[in-house]
Write a structure and sequence with these properties.
single chain, 112 residues, mainly alpha, 5 helices
Length: 112
Amino acid sequence: MPSRPGAENRPRVADAGDGRHWVVRAIRRLGRRLQRSFRIGLRAIWHGLGGFYRSDDLTFAASIAYYSLLSLFPFSLLVLSVIGHITVGESGATLLQLVTKAMPAKVDFLTQ
């Protein structure tokens, strides 16, 4: 006795009698699994993007970028002032004096 009404009248797919009906079932199962995995993946991406835009992550990232760029100028001034006081070699010449010797003649703005 069939488990569902009308199941005895349904034609069996790929029942050629050569024993390959398991291949068709395996392919269908694989198709259903892939479809389910694809749906779950899309749902996860959708929820992830929605959560990202609902949170304040973009504001935090923008503030970090702004303040890091804002601090580059004072940091470069600090580095230049430290380089101006570093002595190199036995003669006691500063690094700034060595750099001015290697540069063209009109660089008076470096030593002021």
